[in-house]
Amino acid sequence: MALSDEEIKKQAVDGLYWDTRVDAAKVSVQVENGRVILTGTVPGYNVRMRAAEDAWNVDGVVWVENRILVRPPPAVPIASDEDIKESVVRALAEDLETADIRVLVNDATVVLEGSVDEYWKKSEAEWIACRARGVCDIENKLAVAPTMSIMDRAIADDVRAANERNRNVNIGDVDITVTDGVVTLSGSVPNRAALRAAVNAAEFTRGVVDVVDELAIEAPGERVEAVC
């Protein structure tokens, strides 16, 4: 039985209060037709992302709009752009090959430029950067330049096989097309877990240079576009 908007809201709020990484008292939740809108303030960009993940984890959610703003606590010294840059560069050096990644910071907004050789590294670089103290926003401009050329058909076969191995995905729900290394996923899936599994299957496949997510999460009686 599908959850009502009030039930979704209650579970989303309960999830935020359960998550010790998030100060739920400073986050507001609104729900309409399964669409969740988050507002409020949090002390860091990583907390903002965690709050959205908590909302997505609720059954019946078809879309999350994250309007939460990052506001460092007054008692905490504000990190300078140079401090943020040093933290991000150091973290990238520890966790990821960074020879071709350039980090720029302007008014606490981190800009990642350059290239990586696997698509998943583009997403991973953003996750690494978001954990640096003082980051308020991230612009990920990294390009993906694989070290070897793989035919589109082979990429599509690998993505399809990865989806078939995942119990969260019904491969019949997902249409996969590949053009010049760009994977486009379309169709309708039942929940967030299936959507993320399908997207991950593309992101982790060798030779992929970009992933276009056109999947929808199907709600009872309607089908809406899913936004990650």
From TrEMBL:
SMART domains: BON (SM00749). InterPro entries: BON_dom, Lipoprotein_DolP, Transpt-assoc_nodulatn_dom_bac. Residues 4-72, 80-146, 151-219 form the BON domain. It holds the Pfam family BON. Signal peptide: none annotated. This is Osmotically inducible protein y.
